[in-house]
Specification:
Number of strands: 13
Strand order of the largest sheet: 3-2-1-4-5-6-7
Length: 369
């Protein structure tokens, strides 16, 4: 198939977690022989912030790690028909301009020669529903929602059988345990402070427990204001700044364990949706402890693939146990890898995507018969 994906940015992962999953999925599609092209708008905020924060050298790792991927910028006045010419499948991420989303729908209605899917990987359907419902999706064939709770929101908006659950997953070609183990020390957390959506939780389930368990803590990420950095300093955490996502396996390989601290929208309004970091951490073979989170879709085996802490005291005990018990660490690593490799790789998600396309194609073939 010829597949076109309209993303916010493929080259930049600065505060843009969907780029992690998208790179892995598109890479898998290319490996299977599909013709894949990504498009991103000129002036995308993730790329602009990356260049301002790190300079153009920060883009080098993308080209080195993903030489098979193609991404081109487009102006907002581009002829979209030219970009999707010959496409069998077009996928549009929810961070695109509403005008672009609408125009691609109108193209689908006029031309009708490709399937068109809207890909939602964010909480705005519940945190900013008016904004999301303003998108013109009537001419789309379906919605890819990155969790069942989000799919139910679209079902309530009338999408019924046209919304498909499509979780994120790990790119195990690049996210895997190190070839040779070296000494591991301390705790690492990779994520963004941003927007006050989990500031209190980061103190309760990361900073204070790490301090009380006497585990050195390294923190990587962006959007840490001065007050956040003062809080990190108060707990003795070391802020390391931005880290290219393709280098994250090397960071995980230096540390004893990591922690999952979900944003409030994913604990209160969209349960069952883990962040991409959960998949990536388990794929890299690092023990993981999660703050309170309802795995209502049973993606993982609680207590087996990762430890679950229901309170800050439980988090402290879990981190202390991981620090002192190599057998427990090995148990979690073994089980986490097993679950990722059996259920949650980008290859699994490509299988699911191709299955969705077949579902969409079946009525078309029947009507043509």
């Amino acid at each position: 198939m010829r597949i076109v994906y309209f993303t916010h940015s493929l080259r930049s992962c600065w505060n843009h977690g969907n780029a992690h999953f998208l790179r892995g999925v598109l890479s898998e599609l290319v490996t299977r022989g599909h013709d894949v092209q990504a498009y991103e708008p000129k002036g995308a905020w993730s790329l602009a912030n990356l260049l301002e924060d790190q300079g153009s050298a920060a883009l080098a790792s993308f080209g080195v790690k993903y030489p098979e991927l193609r991404s081109a910028e487009y102006d907002h006045d581009i002829d979209l028909a030219e970009l999707v010419d010959g496409a069998d499948l077009v996928i549009v991420h929810e961070w695109n301009d509403p005008r672009i989303v609408a125009e691609l729908g109108r193209l689908r209605r006029r031309v009708g020669r490709f399937f068109l899917l809207f890909h939602d990987t964010h909480h705005r359907a519940v945190s900013a529903p008016k904004e999301m419902r303003s998108y013109e999706l009537d001419d789309y064939d379906g919605v890819l929602a990155f969790g069942a709770a989000l799919a139910r929101v679209y079902e309530s908006w009338g999408w019924g059988g046209r919304v498909f659950v499509w979780h994120e997953a790990a790119d195990i070609r690049r996210f895997h345990p190190p070839a040779a183990e070296t000494d591991r020390h301390g705790l690492v957390w990779i994520g963004n402070w941003g927007d006050g959506e989990r500031s209190g939780e980061l103190v309760d389930f990361l900073l204070r427990p790490a301090c009380e368990a006497d585990l050195p803590l390294d923190i990587y990420g962006v959007r840490y204001p001065a007050e956040a950095k003062r809080i990190l300093d108060a707990f003795g955490a070391h802020y390391r700044g931005w880290q290219a996502n393709c280098a994250v396996p090397e960071v995980f390989a230096r540390h004893l364990a990591t922690v999952h601290v979900p944003r409030r929208f994913y604990t209160r309004l969209l349960p069952g949706i883990p962040t991409i970091r959960v998949f990536e951490a388990l794929a890299c073979g690092i023990p993981l402890v999660s703050a309170p989170w309802d795995d209502c879709e049973h993606l993982f085996r609680g207590g087996e693939d990762m430890l679950l802490a229901r309170s800050d005291a439980e988090m402290t005990r879990a981190l202390a146990a991981l620090k002192s018990d190599p057998g427990l660490r090995a148990h979690l690593v073994r089980n986490g890898l097993e679950t990722i490799r059996a259920r949650h790789t980008c290859a699994h998600r490509v299988d699911e995507l191709l299955g969705i396309v077949e579902q969409l194609r079946a009525p078309v073939l029947e009507s043509a018969a």
